[in-house]
Design goal:
With 470 residues, the protein is mostly helical. Helix content is 49%, strand content 3%. The chain is built from 16 helices and 6 strands. A two-stranded antiparallel sheet has the order 1-5. Helix 7 (194-210) runs antiparallel to helix 8 (220-227). Residues 1-5 and 17-35 have low confidence and may be disordered.
Length: 470
């Protein structure tokens, strides 16, 4: 059944991309165009584009979170030099334009479920942008030819906008007068399940509120309240499993297997899991990484590049049959395990160590179940005194340490790292880093500077902190 559904999804995507690209191209050429794209093809490109944006930005920042490391010595992506992410930027705004058009059509036709999801997708994309770049165009940016040089909106205002979009999404998903159902094959994330989207809305709300931990707006009660309506198990996770070609992280594994030298696993994540940093072996590692010719797991330090030829298995990579990188591997957007760690953090900050500790352990267990760790190996890890410290000894450091593993390759992990000021045991600056301290933001891409230069804000450097990271 799942295989049949994936084939159907791919068929819808193929038709959707063709129909929607022509529609959006025509709209830019003729802003007075009356004809409209069908809403389900727009919905398919909106959900698929959002999932792929999670991968695109997740890939870019995976070198900053040190999940990945470049095989090339002194790679710009590794050592905090400015990298031009114009392709990622264009993909985000193309997706957001598609979502905007879908939302207009949904509102016009009383397709409130589509509109509710559209609000969530816009919030998800916008939140990723502002937590990476800071101020970005939004209020004037989705008008096509009517506005080619949009102003940049304040990042703090836009964060509030993302929360407002989530609330609007919830309102529409709870309506009982929608005149259209979401077409199951058009929804590559939740398969048209409105109840699942409603849980994801509350999960997103909890995530966005948790991003404010360094600000005066942080409120543990509001976060815990949102979590009550969010995910209840791994089955609720927002994931994408249908792709136009290889699943995204599988393409990285295939590149390395074919000696094209894509991203390798960083020393930091490997040492966090192989017992080097914390003294306990994480049973998830063999389900993620390749084993070296030495019979162990070894990462590559960011900035150092390959030690040998890069073709003789002296280091570990994402595995061809690993959870994140096997053929058809699900792309993780928002998960139950993440929610348990948000609960752990919020409860800890509220002074409730018992709830924090229980949520911390539940988050580890949920992620291990999802990745496929055996019950025996799971219990051995959780029962290790390094992990099971007791409620009186739970700390934010332990919560963030375990969440770092749970959030592997997800864009939100970089938000967490900056909120925690990179205070992880064994986490090193890249070799020969271009900055004196850890990176805090991305540079604006050349595509925006070249066409909208007067409106692009000046930044002092990639160590400039965003408003929530002060």
């Amino acid at each position: 059944m799942k295989k049949i559904l994936n084939i159907a999804l791919l068929a819808v995507l193929a038709l959707s991309f063709s129909a929607c690209e022509k529609y959006l191209d025509d709209k830019f050429e003729n802003p007075n165009l009356v004809s409209e794209a069908p809403i389900n093809p727009l919905f398919a490109t909106a959900t698929y584009g959002t999932a792929m944006n999670e991968y695109r930005l997740g890939y870019n920042v995976s070198y900053l979170t040190q999940y990945q490391s470049s095989s090339s010595q002194g790679s710009d992506a590794d050592i905090y030099n400015e990298v031009d992410y114009s392709t990622t930027w264009r993909n985000f705004y193309s997706t957001m334009m598609n979502i905007s058009e879908m939302n207009k059509l949904a509102e016009k036709t009383s397709a409130y479920y589509h509109l509710g999801v559209g609000k969530l997708l816009m919030a998800y994309n916008l939140n990723m942008l502002i937590t990476a770049f800071g101020d970005v165009p939004y209020s004037e940016s989705l008008k096509g030819l009517d506005e080619l040089t949009p102003a940049f909106d304040n990042q703090q205002t836009l964060h509030a906008t993302t929360l407002q979009l989530v609330e609007e999404g919830i309102t529409n998903l709870e309506r009982t007068d929608a005149l259209a159902e979401i077409d199951k094959p058009s929804d590559v994330i939740h398969g048209g399940n409105v109840a699942a989207w409603l849980k994801t809305a509350y999960a997103m709300k909890a995530r966005f509120l948790n991003q404010l931990s360094k600000t005066g707006s942080y409120n543990s009660t509001d976060i815990l309240s949102a979590l009550e309506s969010a995910y209840e198990s791994n089955n609720d996770d927002a994931t994408a499993t249908a792709f136009d070609g290889l699943s995204p992280w599988n393409s990285v594994a295939v590149d390395n297997a074919n000696l094209n030298l894509d991203g390798w696993l960083s020393t930091n994540i490997v040492n966090a899991m192989n017992g080097t940093t914390y003294g306990v072996f994480d049973p998830r590692l063999p389900l993620i990484a390749t084993i070296t010719k030495f019979g162990d797991y070894r990462g590559t330090r960011n900035g150092a590049g390959r030690i040998g030829t890069g073709t003789d298995d002296e280091e570990s990579y994402l595995s061809l049959d690993g959870f994140y990188s096997k053929g058809g591997a699900p792309l993780q957007l928002v998960t139950y395990a993440e929610m348990k760690f948000i609960e752990a953090e919020a409860a800890f900050r509220a002074g409730d160590k018992e709830t924090a500790y229980n949520a911390y352990l539940a988050g580890i267990a949920a992620n291990m179940d999802k990745i496929g760790v055996s019950s025996a190996d799971k219990q051995t890890y959780i029962n290790d005194p390094v992990v099971s410290v007791g409620k009186d000894n739970i700390t934010l450091k332990l919560i963030f340490k375990e969440k770092y593993i749970v959030m592997m390759l997800n864009t939100e992990s970089w938000v967490d790292m900056r909120r925690f000021d990179y205070d992880y045991d064994g986490f090193e600056m890249p070799l020969n880093a271009a900055l004196p301290d850890f990176i805090r933001r991305l540079a604006y891409p050349s595509v925006e500077i070249s066409r909208n230069g007067p409106n692009v804000p000046e930044i002092s450097g990639l160590d400039e902190r965003l408003w929530w990271d002060m």
